[in-house]
Amino acid sequence: PITVSGITGNAPAALSVTVDIRHTFRGDLRVDLVAPDGGVFRLKDYNANDSADDVRGTFTVNAASKPADGTWKL
Asked: What's this model's pTM, rounded to 2 decimal places?
């Protein structure tokens, strides 16, 4: 988790999330960003046809409706 404090207002409309997840079959994985208020942003869904290793990359979500302050989780 990442805790954000001291930021008034909402998160940005173009919130970038960079992940580096090690896993031998990334098709197994669903990756969600969970906002402090419990809102969920899907970064990557399951894909049984994706047999490559690891999930690495930057995802951009519109988080403008969510409070910036609080604990964000993957």
From this structure: 0.90
